[in-house]
């Protein structure tokens, strides 16, 4: 079976960033995404209180160029101000033409 090498970008952050992050990934060229609510603990410790909202995990399969562009945006505009983490994973995708 023929697969296409692409990049899975995973962003975990404050739920209040949901719409802003969706706009960022669409502008950068992502063709789609998956969002799930999540919880946990990290360097900024566990989030408490319902007023702060839930965390979310946003995942999108993109070209390496789009992934790099988005990491630059996250690094410049989000990491200094919000509880956000992002990481990349190489993936092999069937029907990869749908993602680029």
For the residues shown, what is the average pLDDT?
89
Kindly state the percentage of residues in helix: 25-40%
Distance linking N and C termini: 19 Å
Element-level helix/strand string: EHEEHE
Label the structural class. alpha+beta
Q: Could you give a short account of the major beta sheet?
A: 4 strands, antiparallel
Low-confidence stretches: none
Q: How are the strands of the largest sheet arranged?
A: 2-3-1-4
Organism: Planctopirus limnophila (strain ATCC 43296 / DSM 3776 / IFAM 1008 / Mu 290)
GO molecular function, one term: enzyme regulator activity
Protein name: Nitrogen regulatory protein P-II
InterPro entries: N-reg_PII, N-reg_PII-like_a/b, N-reg_PII/ATP_PRibTrfase_C
Task: Give a brief description.
This protein is α+β, with helices and mostly antiparallel strands. It has helices at residues 18-28, 64-78; strands spanning 4-14, 34-38, 55-62, 84-93. This is Nitrogen regulatory protein P-II.
Written account of the structure:
- The protein is of the alpha+beta class and 100 residues long.
- It has a single domain (4-99), classed as Alpha-Beta Plaits.
- The protein has two helices and four strands, in the order βαββαβ.
- It has helices at 18-28, 64-78, and strands at 4-14, 34-38, 55-62, 84-93.
- A four-stranded antiparallel β-sheet has the order 2-3-1-4, with helices on one face.
- The longest helix is centred in the C-terminal third of the chain and has 15 residues, at 64-78.
- The protein is globular, with a radius of gyration of 14 Å.
- The relative contact order is 0.36.
- The model has no long low-confidence stretch (mean pLDDT 89).
- This is Nitrogen regulatory protein P-II.
- One of its GO terms (molecular function) is enzyme regulator activity.
């Amino acid at each position: 079976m023929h697969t296409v090498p692409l990049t899975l970008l995973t962003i975990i952050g404050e739920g209040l960033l949901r719409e802003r992050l969706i706009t960022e990934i669409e502008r950068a060229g992502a063709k789609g995404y998956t969002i799930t609510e999540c919880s946990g603990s990290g360097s900024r410790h566990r989030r408490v209180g319902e007023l702060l909202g839930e965390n979310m995990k946003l995942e999108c399969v993109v070209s390496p160029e789009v992934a790099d562009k988005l990491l630059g945006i996250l690094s410049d505009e989000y990491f200094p101000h919000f509880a956000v983490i992002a990481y990349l994973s190489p993936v092999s995708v069937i029907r990869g033409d749908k993602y680029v």
